[in-house]
Amino acid sequence: MLSRIAEALFWIGRYIERIECTARILDVYLQLLVEDPVIDQETTCRSILAAMGVQHEGEADQATVLRLLLHDRSSPHSIAYAVEAARENARRSREVVSAEVWEAINTTYNSVISGRLARSRPADAFRLSLERANMVSALADNTQSHDDGWQFIVLGRHIERVDMTSRLILTRTYATGSASTWQITLRACGAAHAFTRTYRAIESPRAAVEFLLLDRLFPRSVAYSLGEVARCLEELDPRQRRIGFGGDAARIIGQARARMDYLSLTELLADLPAEMGVLQQVCADASNAVAKRYFEGAVAPEWLGGAL
Amino acid sequence: MDELFDGYQAQPSTYDEMFDGAQVRPGYLGVRRQMERLSSDEVRLRADYLSHTYLDQGVTFDIGGEERPFPLDIVPRLIEAETWAHVESGVAQRVRALEAFLADIYGEGQAFLDGVIPRRVVTSSPHYLRVASGIQPPAGVRVHVAGIDLIRGADGEFRVLEDNVRIPSGVSYVMTNRRAMSAALPEVFAHHRIRPVSQYPAKLLAALRACAPSGVADPVVVVLSPGAYNPAYFEHALLARLMGTRLVEGRDLMAQRGSVMVRTTDGPRPVHVIYRRVDDDFLDPVHFRRDSVLGVPGLLNAARGGNVTIANAVGNGVADDKLVYTYLPDLIRYYLEEDPILPNVDTWRLEDPSHREEVLDRLDELVVKPVNGAGGKGIVIGPRATKPELDVLRQKLIDDPRGWIAQPVVQLSTVPTLIGNRMAPRHVDLRPFAVNSGDKVWVLPGGLTRVALPEGELIVNSSQGGGSKDTWILASDGNREPVEAQPATGGHALHPAGGARSSRGGGAHAVTAQGQAQSTAVDLQSNEGSAPC
């Protein structure tokens, strides 16, 4: 696997996941703005933007949110931007991604640059993004060999998912605090159904946060995704050592998993925003460590030693 | 209702490949009959399919950083079996002669001594590279891939317009055109027996592997591309994908102690054959352009050392120099002791004083081309040029006679092309592709037909508003490729339906025999009693 290709695949994984998560968040929160008569539009819009890490001065209304997060190709947090970036990475790795993955990404890109996201009704735009992202992921899983290249896609996908889920949990703390806001967070994570099947229709913020952070079976929970990240890293660098793990990324992720596993729920809930901040930092650090190990260090250190 | 080809007017004094006057030539009868069964709206619809499928697949080329789909016309171009056999042997002959010529001028130089071609014609070519002399390419192959551009004049005979033995491109469109056309016009397609083009990547890979450095049991082939912003990037990626090789850029490779390695996440791995789509000038900053970041420092030394094969070889450009082209018929007779099968287009050498005199005299009726131009750049078509343009050109020719050749205005043959909702004649050329593995020159049965879409335009390059047509080589009985069919019996039946299924059946279409069999299976299942949840 070329370093350059590995990097492109990793970012395809991240951008495609970002498209899906952003579409889910927007879908749920914009529906909320319509449905809830007493909601404070300005505050809710601000909280969405803040959770997604958008620096925005001035008025925040629904149109601003849609522009910055959906269809403005120049806004680095928008779905349109992510589609374009995923496509550029796929173009650079076209001989490695399967033809079907490429075509799915490319047709999505073609409809985005033709302005479809801005033109459609928002609900249709979210559905399109969600379906396309899922289609690309499924095609990657089902039409490519599960070799190192695919591991990089999955690695990117799950690192992004941990990051996005932690942001979603944060939006809860910005919102007004009515009892049903956890339901909204669950829906935004695509977890409402799975949660209800598991805990039944109880309204317990504690249960909801437990589910989103710690459930080992739900594929969008933080614990599940961290597990997948660790598994990918292990596959990519399978050397068994007597002491420690294969690399920095594995160590960073391992620490985060241990923290999730061994902190009590009460401790996690004591300062949830801080815990989510830690998770986002973990994603950034792990991503950098992967880049350092596989993308920048095109020549592995052990070879340098051998040749000189 | 008007038929699709009604009112089609072939141009005077050009060869139309479909119509001989008002008569359809025999080869095209099937195309006409099948296409006229479709309404003109339907034909338009299919043509639209062709353009949007190319956008979806990203079959594009770059012009100034903008990706555009390569226009593909709905009417195929047919070449009958005997005509093709002639073209095929002519192209192969040409490649063999070019191969012998390159081996000679980068070796002994016997042709100079025997007076077949003056030494200065070769050494004054900017593509003659002294660093390439003395390199013995593995299997004796320098021209691994060739694209020989052919045109048909008013008499319908194929003539060679130019040779491309550096990095000829366009073969990817031959393959994608075929796939798109078989989906767009299945009726017409099924009506003909067309020789397949899909074996090209396997043939190319086999040839590249055959030309690997000696002593390598399982040679590693890579495709070297200048990167995603190169106009032909789509083709580089397609070939790499279909050959199953890595697509690398210069920075992915490194030359070390005479060998070439590719940088991977598992450390460096050896490379034996580089199918490069980077120009000579940019290939190795040690020998050529110092500022090139597309190349690999030390690559040429590795090739000289015999540790890596560069395909096509460095220095081939001298063979497709347009002045050398004028000597090709003589070179074919000299090296192969055969008569040229495909003639050249008549050409004046401006170097020759008597030729120059005549050309300067008749400048307004000739086509003048720079000898090292590509992509239709710099060509002046006399009858269409203005007086000041011709005066500028005249001075250029006098200043640099070595840089130019002149040819009569050849009316390229035409093939009906869908323009709006009507068929109109448009000029075409043909670029067949040949692959040389050392023991055999194989010609892809097809080749790229480029079509000049503006009316009357004679330059067919894609960078000048050209499109393409799928080129159908009809099979004769001699080259029937065996088809293995799966036996109709002996396969296992699909596993009967499992899981829950509505026992009420799915409406009208459930009354088929298969539907009944399935509902029986469902009944058996539901007898076992799966509890409702």
Automatic annotation (TrEMBL), chain A:
Positions of the DUF403 domain: 1-295
InterPro entries noted in UniProt: ATP-dep_Glu-Cys_Ligase-2, DUF403
Domain of life, source organism: Bacteria
Protein name stated in the entry: Alpha-E domain-containing protein
Organism: Leekyejoonella antrihumi
